[in-house]
Write the structure tokens for this entry.
Amino acid sequence: MLTKRLKTDRESYDGSIREAARILKNGGIAAIPTETVYGLAASALDEEAVKKVFIAKGRPQDNPLIVHIANIDTLSEIAADIPDGAYKCAEKFWPGPLTMVLKRTDKIPAIVSAGLDTVAVRMPSDKTARDIITASGLPLAAPSANTSGKPSPTSAKYVIDDLDGKIDAVVMSGDCRVGVESTVITLVTSPPRLLRPGAVTVEQLREIFPDIVVDKAVLSEPEKGEKVASPGMKYKHYAPKTETYLVESDSDSFAEFVNAKQDAAAVCFFEDGERINIPCIFYGTGKDEYTLAHGVFSALREADTLNKSAIYVHAPSKSGVGLAVYNRLIRAAAFRVITL
Ligand code: AMP
Ligand code: MG
């Protein structure tokens, strides 16, 4: 299949939005930019189109997709028994990087939710994403636009690296502003539960849900056969091909540790830079977790291209957006954590 590149410079923008919407309305699949990561979109109302998304990504059938909407009125069409808290969250965090799991209506085919009776919904803030959703007139099911298991794509280039020839189109835009996937909370349990951390932080969510619980799968490896609230948590995720380790330490000890390694690469903070004598990729400053979220996935992909025998990543703090970055890295590292 030829994957169309749809440009979004000023001259091409309107035509590309129309073409992406046409593809989606006709049951095709297209990668679209969002503020979190690029998503691989299909009509959430079209079972056959959604099947194509699972196939193109090689995504396990039991890992549900997030439905993207551009208008709050769509929420009550796809979700039922919506609690007040959901509207409070929508008012405070939408459009933006928060996904809410709610009870599913029959309008959404079971395949979207991998057979669960719930549906995950988000309203993205990225203008291009919103324009495509609006032009298609559809809710769009869209997981991250990467091959399952690999780091999520934060630029169109990485989408093409993974999915060229397997999808109908890529809407080419700039780098994703946030850089990690949305925060996922479920509101079908009481109290609400954080299933995946993201740029909307637990601290912010506590202002609406003081009793919100952080699911234990956020920071620990699910036991074999354990039933997890968010099926995505049990899979190998975000992983470079190269064996990756997460290193918790200060700058000096991190540098001393990695400098003693043969044939390894480091993924580290700007401020570690001068001390490191092995090939290194910076992913932001340890003093600002937003920069780390923005850079983490591209740094993992770039470190992988160095073809070393190991990658050592300097771990971020677990507070604020740091929790989201840490959650991705601990999975990229298959839970191999070294504490110095
Ligand atoms: P991705 O689309 O790659 O951002 O992955 C979507 C994430 O949302 C996965 O971790 C899923 O397990 C989670 N998710 C989607 N729908 C549901 C749902 N109905 N219940 C619980 N988790 C969900
Ligand atoms: Mg994903």
